[in-house]
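Table S2 (text version). Query chain:
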Amino acid sequence: MQQRQHRGPMPYIERDTSWMYFNKRILLEAMRPDLPLLERFNYLGIYSNNLDEFFRVRVASLRRLIDSAEELPTTERKKAKETLRTILRLNREYSQLFDETFAQLVRELKDAHIHIINEHELTSNQEEEVLSFFMDKINGFTNPIFINSPTFNPEQHLKESLYLAVVLWHDQEEPETGHEVALLEVPVRELGRFFRLRDEGGESYLMFLDDVIRYCLPYIFIGREYVQYEAYTFKFTKDAEFEIEQDLRSSVIEKVSRGVKRRKRGETVRVVYDQALSPEILRKLSAMAELNFRDTRIGGGRYHNMRDLMDLPDCGRKGLRFPKQPPLQMNEFHYTQSMIHQIMHQDRCLHFPYYSFDHFLRLLQEAAISEEVTEIRISLYRVAQNSKVVKALTTAAQNGKRVTAVVELLARFDEQSNINWGKKMQDFGINVVLGHEKLKVHSKLVYIRTKHGGIACIGSGNLHEGTARLYTDLMLMTAHKGIVHDVMQVFDFIERPFIAPHFHHLLVAPNDMRQPLYNLINKEIRLARAGQEAYIRLKLNHIVDEKMVAKLYEAVTAGVRVELCLRGNCSLLPGVPGYSEGLFINAIISRYLEHSRIYVFGGGGEPKYYIGSTDWMTRNLDRRIEVMTPVYDPAIQRELDFIISAGLRDTEQGYYVQGEAVRPRRDDLGPDEAPFNSQQALYKYYEAKKNKENNG
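Corresponding structure-token output:
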């Protein structure tokens, strides 16, 4: 087979730029008239929440690079500046699109008999209802702070919350001297963002909590002589990163705890505000936050912190959300039989949220009381608020099992929660192992030792009841002796990172993953050059590692069929002559967040299948403990083929990934061609499988 020649520099989209393109795909979902209305509001909320975290983490990191000392290479600082300029340009474009979409959805909400009204649109009955709500619920949560107070400290008072800048007028005829400014935190955490008023005439009415407070300003500032009140929303976004102190006298927990506290005082990197806010007050807010010319100021509509749209109530109206799809119970796992014995007999694979997370909980609960089980080891990256997983582990410890829990203290934004869970588990006698401060433990592993052998669970997602209802994830349950032995060695390595284990089945980052992946790709390249069938099919969240991008381009130009099902960051650019002609990438944004990772290599007729926790990002491959497990069971291999084929085929929720030139695949459907939705197809597949077994 003739190899295509490369032309020009390797096409590569910067990680952070590609993330902006990904988030735009979420925004495009909010614009789709064929989706249920509140799901479109939900996509706006997801877009906003994603953007907040992106500025807190990635934009803040770029700013630090740009402001770094001279020892950083000039080329790296220059590249960071270019990326930041691109991000800010795209952010301005997308912010305008967001505001236009929100206004359109509010209009459509009226047609669904739900009205979002403000303080100027209240009837007399509604005014009484709002005032009653203020007296009963809000009063006591609203504590204004005057910015001209001699003791006002912006560092103490300006958190990453939603605020109102309240302009209070003593005398409208003297605008320069006749007003004061107070800041008032909107108590969203305590009261929620929306206040539902009583229905009238078959119509439902909602108010943003901001507008409820606007109406009640005269009561909040009672006792002071003001003739007029104006209130404008704003919100600061702060740098979420913190450095671990190099203090040998402190434990890792103490250092992380101090870092979490410092995060609250992090540098401000963005302010979003009501564009009706006067330039004078915007300057005051910018000065308080010490914003410089590189920091972002986004003027928009009256409302901000739009992540709360994910909680917009349906007011009892039907048809405004996706039809419910309750998680299914696997017939293979009979409640009357031991799950441990069934896994010993045959490998199983759980696919959440199509299958219920209850299966995994039952396994832990059985292990906690079984006389055959002597030891449980588990890695915990994020933990649910009222974790049934932790409850099962504490039960096991109380029943005399040796229980080891690896708790990752540096799971971003869950650090304090994980510290608290670690202490609680220690109180129950669990051996808590803390992730190394320079090597995150991101693998999703469980090892259960019994008197007759061990079993292992290797997954793509966190052992978390909440996300298991929202994220698509896979978990292999196996008693394969080689895999189980390798899982044991991973836990040994986590506890003693100075050892150098050798893994026979698992691919384990940071030491034993990158080169084996190169070897798998190289084999496909050799097969293609020899004129044999060669293919690579991947289902991942992100591919941004430059070496992996280059390797996939090499495979494509050698004639390997490369098909990727990606959700998020994608640094590859299909269709570039000499590099990526024939490369196919489908991105799915749908009701569930696509999070499962599947890796399939053709192998010359003997394909190799893997699932695991790692995306192809430099941090995952080189700076984290990640695990990919082979899948040997033919039935599970066929299921993985079905999952990835469905994802690649999706024309209803799929997008062609071509850099910023995002194009919905449904746009290419013919007039008689029905769109294909992979998530619906998978649910029907598992449902039919369950019914067939019931009837068989």
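Notes on Table S2: The two ends are 49 Å apart (CA to CA). Residues 245-250 have pLDDT under 50 and may be disordered.
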